[in-house]
Amino acid sequence: MEQVMTNTMGFPILSSLIFLPVIGAVVLLLLNRTNENLIKWVALLFSVGTFLVSLPLFSTFDKTTHAMQFVERHAWIPSWNINYYLGLDGISILFVLLSTLVAILCVLISWNSVKMKVKEFFISILIVESAMIGVFCSLDFFLFYIFWEAMLIPMYLLIGVWGGPNRVYAAVKFFLYTLVGSVLMLVGIITLYLYAGRTFDILALSKLILPYDMQFWLFWAFFAAFAVKVPMFPVHTWLPDAHTEAPTAGSVILAAILIKMGAYGFLRFSLPMLPEASRAMTPVMIGLSVIAIIYGGVICLAQTDLKRLIAYSSVSHMGFVTLGIFALNVQGMEGGILQMLNHGIVTGGLFLGVGAIYDRTHTRQIADYGGVASVMPVYASIFIVFTLASIGLPATNGFVGEFLILLGGFKASQWAGVLSATGIIIGAGYMLWLYQRVFFMETNQKVAGLSDIGARELAALLPMVVLIFWIGVYPTAFLGFMHESVRHLLERVSDGGVHGVSVAHNVLEILK
Amino acid sequence: MQLMMPNLQPVMPEITMTVLALLVLVADLVIKRKETIGLLSIITAAIVAYFLTTAKGTAFNGMFLSDGYSIFFKLIFLMNLILTVLISVKYLSVERVNFGEYYSLILFSTLGMMVMASAGDLIVLYLGLELMALSTYILAGFLRYDMKSNEAALKYFLLGAFASAFLLYGTALVYGMTGTTDLKEIAGYIALNGLAQNPMLILAMIFVAVAFSFKIAAVPFHMWAPDAYEGAPTSITAYMSVGPKAAGFAVIGRVFLVAFGGMKVEWSAVLIPIAILTMGLGNIVAISQTNIKRMLAYSSIAHAGYALLGIIAGTPDGLASVMVYMLVYAFMNIGAFAVIIMLRSGDFKGDSLSDYEGLAKTHPLAAGLMLVFMFSLTGIPPTAGFMGKFYLFMSAIQAGYTWVVLIAVIFSAISAYFYLRVVMLMYMKEPKETVALSSSPAIGLALAVALVGVLAIGVVPSFFVNFAKAAVAGF
């Protein structure tokens, strides 16, 4: 079967998605910094524009094939055989859409909360958006790495300049953790590149049969980068600091997109390129995932800071994602990918929600809240949707994802299934307790008299609510995208690396 | 008997440079406005660059080689010269040392580097090295009423003299063993007589390595660098951290890959520990610096360590990656120093890290430029610093030195800490006092060139990589 399909859109849609925000950033750069309103509107215009351009992806994507679609390919650095090579398959497409959506919400939620260096703030947001889209679209490993690293610069600034009191520490920690992981991966990438006869083509690399020793070392080199990003236990410690100290928009980007890139890396690189090592390392990966699920959940119970609690819940939830991926069966993997999306929506929503109330009270301490439901009823009802989705109540998206993952998890290892199921119970515990302490009980002095959320904030929160129910009630609309790609990937993981089968496979291909 | 006139075409750039540098020296007597002298030296560089285009060939029986390799390096030297002059014009009057000799000394020093890059013989190499070094010693002490500048010059001179002595000793030993100082003939003699493991020759090789390690400020021969870089006039610090270092790498490439080409096993055993120590010490000690010039001095030490990886690889790709890296380093480092120079005004020193607090608020453009240069020095894409490091790492891994590269990337990640601190101070702290920038059109031009260089090599490195590869082809 064809590996790639040409772009039938009539224009380079993926390049447009990547470069529209960059153009927006350049326009912002040229605007006068005192005209803050204009800056905000231009930022909104470009993020909405990018989102609109991305919508045709959703409608025209061919779900019947695993081949890369909307492909663009141009020589970029011929001397190193590096190409500007873009394309989407069922695994990556949903994240591109989520990225373009999240960027709009970030602009909306930051409208009034960012008061200094407004221009630089929105430039950073737009550049992050462009890098995020680039990461998911790249079909060239080098190009991928460029986007992956380039994102660090604006993200570092977002956390460090507009963050909370401890922002500098959090920003540096975030940067160093990610950088160490990334450079180790870079060594792995170069090794792979030289072994494969100087190619960075992801599709070509995904067909290689590497010696097991090499797969083993490359697996851990890639692990260094992806596990830090996910973040998996025990390299998760940057996450609570970064999520907590980042401004609302930064937390949302981190939670919704950035940490998904790690799991995406496993799916796009580790599994197809290093199938044998991935199979061999399954017990380790499942073990780390289960630890993350339970440990992340238990730590949430002890948090007194709103954002920190949600940050640790990410560790637990991303544990589910990696469990699903490394269960190496259809249910687990589809559940894992869907849960990546779900977590982006739900945790992104939670951070948006916390941001909305933080703008009013300027405190993140749970103890400073109480009785918010009676003061801000609309806000409370939206927040309960996020809370329940985070727990995984049926009819919300969280249920679908976690159910599939547990199904896959049980298939892979009963122990892992049982243990991670307890994670859901702990999850219900800390989320409901959080909701109770913030929204019910006696009205705290500090929240009395607060105004309920306005139209702008509602506009930022509602899309997430819609998505929660959409995926929760009719997941096929989203799972349908990934069936073929996941099937293809699992095929590769289960027979890849075994010479005989692969040869037989090739013969079959030719006969077809 | 008829005397043969030697073919001077390959040496024309150097001859032109000598004549014009002398003219600039004389012009200084009659021209009162020293900015004009600066302009003259830039014109000189341009004329020399023009002569470079037709200068391919060898002269003086192979003592002087004008090949693609040397021309590439000479272009880096000339670029370094032009950028340095551009950032000096205003700075010299701020420091009240606006003397014309400054420019002719830079010209002579660059001439020395050019001779080094073209040296096909250890004696020519030594001549070039001394011309470069002696001129630079004076430049380092150019702030003659400043104790620190005097100290810088004296330290640089004393340790530089040691390095020269090592080089001469090594040269003498090589001559004693092989009977020649011609690089190619040395290689031929070693190969013919199987002298690769000869202890005397290994000793000679180590002496030469030590001398060059002094020049590129590699650990453990780096002690002069922080003091010299801190005390020297900032424009000369920029100049020293790029030019002599690139010249050092030019001769290391030539001597180790040509003359000692058959002793790769032996010299890589010497250079690998040096490279690792250099990266390690440079990056770790830089973390604790409070003076930005000193910090960049240690950073410059660290970058020499990265660049050594390309030499250690010992392949054409390795050599090309060193050349590209030197070019990249010239742009990003001089760019950073240009920003530092702008902060120097009146009585305000502007070389302490705390002087950068809140720069993004008071001077957003200068802070933005510094941000780009700092990220480039860290090696974050899409800047030139990343492409340069990538090429170095790639060629070293290809040559089988994956473990050295692993160490290098870890140190490279550590370096992020102190480069980012500058960004952090500029963007995440509040300004203490507002200082006026001493900017001028010349420094603006230098910054623009550096910025374009950093971004162009970062986004479309092909042109430069191909250029370097083609240059190495005739090596």
Care to describe what's here?
The complex is a heterodimer of chains A (512) and B (475). Chain A has 512 residues and is mainly alpha-helical. Chain A has a domain at 281-473. Helices cover 74% and strands 4% of the residues of chain A. The longest helix of chain A has 32 residues, at 330-361. With 475 residues, chain B is mainly α. Helix content of chain B is 76%, strand content 1%. Chain B has helices spanning 12-30, 34-52, 68-94, 101-118, 122-140, 147-178, 183-193, 199-215, 224-231, 234-259, 264-287, 292-313, 316-343, 359-362, 364-378, 384-398, 402-428, 441-459, 462-473, and strands spanning 57-59, 64-66. In chain B, strands 1-2 form a two-stranded antiparallel ribbon. In chain B, a hairpin with a 4-residue loop joins strand 1 (57-59) and strand 2. In chain B, helix 3 (68-94) packs antiparallel against helix 4. The longest helix of chain B has 32 residues, at 147-178. Chain B is globular, with a radius of gyration of 21 Å. Chain B starts with 11 loop residues before the first helix and ends with a helix. The mean pLDDT of chain B is 90. Classes of the chains: A mainly alpha (512), B mainly alpha (475). The A-B interface holds A 33, 76-80, 117, 120, 145-146, 149-150, 152-153, 156-157, 160-161, 167-168, 171-172, 175-176, 179-180, 183-184, 186-187, 190-191, 193-194 and B 360-361, 364, 375, 380-382, 386, 390, 393-394, 397-398, 402, 405-406, 409-410, 412-413, 416-417, 420, 423-424, 427-428, 460-462, 465-466, 469.
